[in-house]
Amino acid sequence: MNNFESIENFIKNVPKSELHLHIEGSLEPELMFKLSKRNKVEIPFKSIEEIRSAYNFSNLDSFLKIYYEGSNVLITEQDFFDLTWEYILKCKRDNIVHTEIFFDPQSHTERGIEFDTVINGINKALIKAKSEFGITSEIIMCFLRHLDEELCFEVLKHATKHKDKIIGVGLDSSEKGNPPQKFKRLFDAAIKEGFLTVAHAGEEGPPEYIWESINLLKVKRIDHGVQCLKDKKLVEILKEKNIPLTVCPLSNIKLCVFDKLENHNLKEMLDNGLRVMVNSDDPAYFGGYLNTNLIETSKALNLRIEDIKVLIKNSFKSSFLDEKSKNSWLNKI
Ligand code: ADE
Ligand code: ZN
Questions:
Q1: Which residue's CA is the nearest one to ligand 1's atom 10?
Q2: Which end of the chain is more exposed for a tag (fewer CB within 10 A), N or C?
Q3: What pTM did the predictor assign?
């Protein structure tokens, strides 16, 4: 076995956690096609191959347009259950033992789908994941930042009725021009209700959006954050406060944040002592789940097995698992 084969085997077999996964972004073309027929929802594609070949993006917004269109096929509780269960089967295959899942309720409630339909379908699949495979999970509700704060307060009201299922709130969608400060009152209200907070920041947007997420939204983690290296003072603060950055390498390539994986700054972030880990973001659209992200990135950046262990440990350490569960997984890596 050559050196890279042994790294690949290590990645496949080690228990892993995932902290940045949009459940709607795990909608594979096959399921999209099946649900479009089941629910009689038209999609602008004639075949599964045609769907796949449409996945060429130039930036975040060009992806989001297709991603929201894809979500239109999700109508019933069974659809949300099936979507989540398919992702859980990928977790089982990839040896992901803990996952923290984002969902975008506003992309469904805007189409007349009840909030309860969405959350109950997702939650039932996660209960089954725990009982059949022992896979643990949390749910994080994301606000769509291209919408007004006022509309987001409506969805926060729904979330408060499902506090037993939702651990935290996040911020996603079109980043540039929608700074975190736009949502300060909303996040204050969410924190008052007992939700933990995270936010997408510094994916395409400037380091300033990372500062605002920390100082105004009081986030426990930054999602992406790859633009932080442009600001030395920010890097110092991220290190000092041990703020996790949920990096998604294949996503960054597909959305042209970096031109190729060999030029991704993950290794530089690691070498700077930042608490980074690898995640898949929207794997059905970006060409791979967690193991593929880890394997491809390790190859492109020449990561050593020690680097990969740090990434995987960082993910458990940064999760919303209790200390006992964290330590028990950390001892297995
Ligand atoms: N929604 C789904 N994927 C996203 C991403 N990578 N950035 C912002 N919003 C998203
Ligand atoms: Zn994301």
A1: 173
A2: N
A3: 0.98
Task: State the pLDDT at residue 2.
Answer: 74
Q: How far is CA 145 from the centre of its chain?
A: 15
Residues 261-280 have pLDDT tens digits of: 999 999 999 999 999 999 99
Total domains in the fold of the chain: 1
Nearest CA to ligand 1 atom 1: 173
Cβ atoms 325, 331 nearer than 8 A: no
The ligand 1 site (C-beta within 6 Å) comprises 22, 25, 60, 67, 172-173, 200, 203, 251, 281-282
| pLDDT reported for residue 149 | 97
Pick left, alpha or beta for residue 250 (phi over 0 → left; psi -120 to 50 → alpha; otherwise beta): alpha
Amino acid at 297: T
Range of the domain at 116: 3-330
Residue 197: is its pLDDT beyond 80? yes
Is the pLDDT at 174 greater than 80? The verdict is: yes
Whole-number Cα distances in Å, 225 to 114, 210, 263, 316: 32, 7, 16, 18
Minimal CA–CA distance to 85: which of 39, 128, 29?
128
Q: The domain spanning residue 196 has which CATH number?
A: 3.20.20.140
Q: How far is the CA of 201 from the centre of ligand 2 (A)?
A: 10
The whole-chain average pLDDT of the chain stands at 97
203 is catalytic: yes
For the chain, what is the largest distance between any 2 Cα atoms, rounded to a whole number of angstroms? Answer: 58
Atom of ligand 1 nearest to the CA of 203: 7
What is the pLDDT confidence band of residue 1, given thresholds at 50, 70 and 90? low
Rounded to whole angstroms, the Cα distance separating 333 from 315 reads 12
Of all protein residues, whose CA lies closest to atom 8 belonging to ligand 1?
173
